[in-house]
Amino acid sequence: MRMFILHTREKKALIIAFIYIFLMGIGMITVTKFNLSYQNPNMTNVLVFFELIMSIFTIIGYKKLNMRFLSNSFKYSNWLIPYIIFEIVIVSFFLVKSDFSLNFTQVLIVIITTFFVGFSEELMFRGILLHVFLEKRSIRYSIIASAIAFSLLHSVNVLGGEPFGAMLLQLVLTFVFGIVFSCLAILIRNIIPLMIYHFIWDMVIISGSLTNNNVSAIALFILIFQLIIAIPIVIYTIKKRST
């Protein structure tokens, strides 16, 4: 039962995370008030303001908890190799195949919004939450707690018009994503590369319909890869941390 008793800093980190999720939920509800939905990239016209607020809120939470992990030096890991390759492929495909003249202003808004998304979500879930739990918890417990919270964040997408079935699938995928990225955060001791990857991933996916650029095949391959490596990377991370 002791593992379920939260320490003071853990409670504070969870409160910050739940407020963050609440703000996202309000953002999704607001999106629908403008006759937009989660499937429409124009939702970023509304969400950009919420993402800015959430980014500022997360920075405040980081400082309130007196955290220092953003200043940690980067440590290379071979587990980064596939993600570096994915990044190069998806960015190259995006730049070569996209027609930015179609919706330049809207694409710019998507870029700004997803920058805030990548920054604040990584700072919140692979940053604050993961690192606070690692202070007194096992690595396995900390990874799962962070991944669950990150997955729950995406449950509020249903408030923005995401079909319930699609939302459930997204919960599973983001849970796996959360596990893999928590492991990477521990292995490389730095979340800035994860922020960059997260930003580019969301930016390319959301802006695809605006630029006549279909990256669904590449995205599906990357998702399948993450499902495959989830268990091996957790095992490796736990063993690496214990040595």
Automatic annotation (TrEMBL):
The chain crosses the membrane at residues 12-31, 43-62, 74-96, 102-120, 141-160, 166-187, 194-211, 217-238. Belongs to the UPF0177 family. It comes from the Bacteria. PANTHER family: CAAX AMINO TERMINAL PROTEASE FAMILY PROTEIN, SLR1288 PROTEIN. The keyword Transmembrane helix applies. InterPro entries: CAAX_protease, Rce1/LyrA-like_dom. Keywords: Membrane, Transmembrane, Transmembrane helix. GO terms for biological process: CAAX-box protein maturation. One of its GO terms (molecular function) is endopeptidase activity. This is CAAX prenyl protease 2/Lysostaphin resistance protein A-like domain-containing protein. It holds the Pfam family Rce1-like. The keyword Nucleotide-binding does not apply. Residues 105-204 form the CAAX prenyl protease 2/Lysostaphin resistance protein A-like domain.
